[in-house]
């Protein structure tokens, strides 16, 4: 076999390998792969870019590149119980002190995410970006709670987070909490209820109890 033929075979083999690698990557990071992976987060990012799908997909692909290989650390049973107890206390506090409750839930989610192996809460944007890669369906609840916690207490009514807005944010954030606090070995294909989820993800005033005080 001539040297030229051997070189040609090697080049063809290399092209085939590269094409296979690119095909595998495209299934996870191409437009359809990104839509499938990010779900509502995909639509949110497109809207944030004014409908520019190309810019949105570049941002999401960059998130996958940065955080896609992150492996979540399992919590110890005692850690899960501690976080569940903190959530219950903060949830109950909402009835009398909505703002304090929201601030505590914001801190709780930041600490819980960090304990699961995501970037520390001090790097909020980076932490949310990483969470969006692995918990795209529910990460926006964390954003809503964080915005409510950071909203000014004074100023115009438009700049303040009202009680109903905070209540809705906490309810939505509960789903991310459940995702993070529940062991990953749980049965897939249904929503994971999480530790201490006897309330069904609802807040204490959702039954016959009185509603929280207006802020």
What is the rounded Rg?
Answer: 22 Å
Distance between the termini: 84 Å
How large is the count of helical segments? 9
Pairing-aware structural class of the strands and helices?
Answer: mainly alpha
Report the strand count.
0
Transmembrane segments: 6-24
Organism: Streptomyces fuscichromogenes
Keywords: Membrane, Transmembrane, Transmembrane helix
Region (Disordered): 182-215
Descriptive tags:
transmembrane, 0% strand, membrane, Secreted protein, transmembrane helix, mainly alpha, 2 domains, disordered C terminus, 9 helices, 215 residues
Write the layout of secondary structure elements.
Layout: H1 3-29, H2 31-38, H3 40-48, H4 53-67, H5 77-93, H6 98-115, H7 124-134, H8 139-150, H9 163-181
Helix pairs in contact: 1-2, 2-3, 3-4, 4-7, 5-6, 6-8, 6-9, 8-9
């Amino acid at each position: 076999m001539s040297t030229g033929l051997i070189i040609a075979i090697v080049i063809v083999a290399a092209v085939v390998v590269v094409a296979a690698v690119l095909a595998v990557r495209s299934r996870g990071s191409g437009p359809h792969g990104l839509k499938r992976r990010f779900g509502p987060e995909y639509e949110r990012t497109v809207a944030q870019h004014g409908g520019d799908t190309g810019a949105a997909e570049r941002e999401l692909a960059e998130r996958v590149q940065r955080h896609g290989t992150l492996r979540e650390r399992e919590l110890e049973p005692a850690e899960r119980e501690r976080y569940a107890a903190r959530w219950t206390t903060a949830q109950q506090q909402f009835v009398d002190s909505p703002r304090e409750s929201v601030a505590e839930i914001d801190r709780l989610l930041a600490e819980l995410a960090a304990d699961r192996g995501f970037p520390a809460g001090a790097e909020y944007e980076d932490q949310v970006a990483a969470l969006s890669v692995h918990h795209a369906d529910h990460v926006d609840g964390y954003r809503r709670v964080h915005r409510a916690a950071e909203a000014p207490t004074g100023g115009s009514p438009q700049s303040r987070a009202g009680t109903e807005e905070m209540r809705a944010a906490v309810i939505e954030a509960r789903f991310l909490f459940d995702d993070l606090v529940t062991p990953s070995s749980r049965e897939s294909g249904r929503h994971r209820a999480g530790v201490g989820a006897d309330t069904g993800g609802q807040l204490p005033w959702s039954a016959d109890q009185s509603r929280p005080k207006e802020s």
